[in-house]
Amino acid sequence: MSNGYYLIIDAGTTTIKAFAYDDSGEIIKKVVNRVPVSFPRPGWVEQDPSLYWEKVFDSVKRICDELGRPLAVGITNQRATTVVWDKVDGEPLYNMITWQDTRAYDLAEELSKESLVRLGRFLGSLVEAFAKVFKRLGESKSAKYLITIAHFKFGSNQPGIHLRWLMDNVSEFAKAVKAGKAAFGTLDSWILWNMVGRHVTDFTNASATGIFDPFYLKWSDRLIKILGIPREILPSVVDNMCYLGKSKVALDAPVTAVIADQQASLYSAGGARRGAAKMTNGTGTFIDVNVGSEPVPAVGGTYPMVALKQGEKAVYLIEGIVQATGSAIDWLVDLGIIGSPAEADELAELAKDSFGVVFVPALAGIGTPYWINEVRGCVYGLSRGTRREHLVRALLEGLAFRLSEVISIVESVSGIRFGEIVADGNASRYDVLLQLVADLSSKKVIRVKNLEGSSRGAFLLARGAVKGLSVDEAWISPEVEKVFEPRADSGLNPGRWLKSLRSCINYYESLK
Fold first, then answer.
1. CA angle 114-117-120, nearest 5°?
2. Residue 290: helix, strand or coil by DSSP?
3. Whole-model pTM?
4. What is the distance between the alpha carbons of residues 198 and 241, in angstroms, rounded to a whole number?
5. Which of 138, 151, 303, 505 could be cross-linked to 131 through a Cys-Cys bond (beta carbons 3.0 to 4.6 Å apart)?
6. CB atoms near residue 54 (< 10 Å)
């Protein structure tokens, strides 16, 4: 049996992956477990927390049974799923509410109109207006904080809002809160509770809850007060690279890293370097840029989050989101238009152009900068001459337009010009898509060999902790698989596509 490896848990929504990385960063074993999702009512998206943990346990056990005790364990996870449990017996108090759940939409809208929120927006708007005239005013942390408040609105997918909904609607949870027995956390918290017996989260996951202040690195007193959340149910916040305890399920190996998935991917792509940019193309796409040691105000449908926290060192990111990327290509398979995801690339290359078809791929609402969940995909320009390869090509072009649009927004909000962006995630396998993104964004798109950027980032941190390295010393540049250089003339028409996008948005807004 080999013990010269690091065990990394990548906890997704429907898939839990466990990896064994050797010291050089090669994956020597991978275990995948699927986790069911339930939809008890329209807009409700839940999972069984006990079953989720069982799947994590099984994934870890299968690797340890074959390879023995790991050198260390690292955890990375999808953000913003809400888990609540009893601190005394460890039993869940309700199903996990996933980040896709919109049951609390009305509550989020109501709380966004609270007097404290409106006052904050008013003051923030004044500061923002003055900062446009007096540039130095906008450079202070307090001004950036207030400008962010000017654009703040509670979202129906935020754990903070889901937590308030649970307090109002689930009597068992409300009783546990009153008795001081309730615990709340995101997926990392739930896994660590079961693995090492601690009620903690890390700064990157905390900053995605909607109740954490990324500017002052603490739970927000103001937001907690508005939501009526007792502070004692919140987890303690820890660094991304630290000793968290011995893993009961991994032969007492030390747990030395915990980090949210998109932040882990950003770290894998560029370490803690300001200006590092990455594009994770999975079910949807998350585009992130490291903005350095000072957070920037949230404007343009973005939100500042902690990218990494270690000791006195904190770095921040700005993120933009496209809600359907790989899932849009899967939709083509579901319809029978293509036989497999790989065929999308082949047909799009064969078509060369879309024969006048324009596809707005808003199959799950539209994200940055619009954030309109009701919008759905639209197709324009169909004719008797349209063939399936034209539809496939139009979809990939539409995805590329959206991705390049969000890249431009993230670049503008961050104030950082970057010439290249690292692509990972399974939907980065499509050459046509990445080439079109390079053309439209005028950025060099770098596809890395290991598309599992989240697990690789967690591996680097777990390894760094064992070796006593700083986060800068722990980072190793990813191996490049292919580079897509922007072409001078792609033959695409951004103006026509943007008009189609606006037409699609206007149509759905007219239905309200």
1. 150
2. strand
3. 0.94
4. 16
5. 138
6. 15
C-alpha torsion sign, points 354, 357, 362, 368: positive
Give the SS3 label for residue 185.
strand
37 burial level (CB within 10 Å; 0-12, 13-18, 19+)? middle
Given a contact cutoff of 8 angstroms between Cβ atoms, the answer to whether 48 and 25 are in contact is no
Residue pLDDT, tens place only, 359-401: 999 998 899 999 888 899 999 999 999 999 999 999 999 999 9
Q: How far apart are CA 212 and CA 458, in angstroms?
A: 22
Cβ(447)–Cβ(481) below 8 Å: yes
Cβ atoms of 175 and 188 within 8 Å: the answer is no
Residue whose pair of structure tokens reads 């390894």 in the numeric block: 463
Residues 5, 70: Cα–Cα separation, whole Å: 5
**Rounded to whole angstroms, what are the CA distances from 65 to 2, 61, 476?**
11, 6, 29
DSSP states along 429-480: G-HHHHHHHHHHHT-EEEEES---HHHHHHHHHHHHHHHT--HHHH--PPPE
Asked if residue 56 lies in contact with residue 191, where contact means CB atoms within 8 angstroms, the answer is: yes
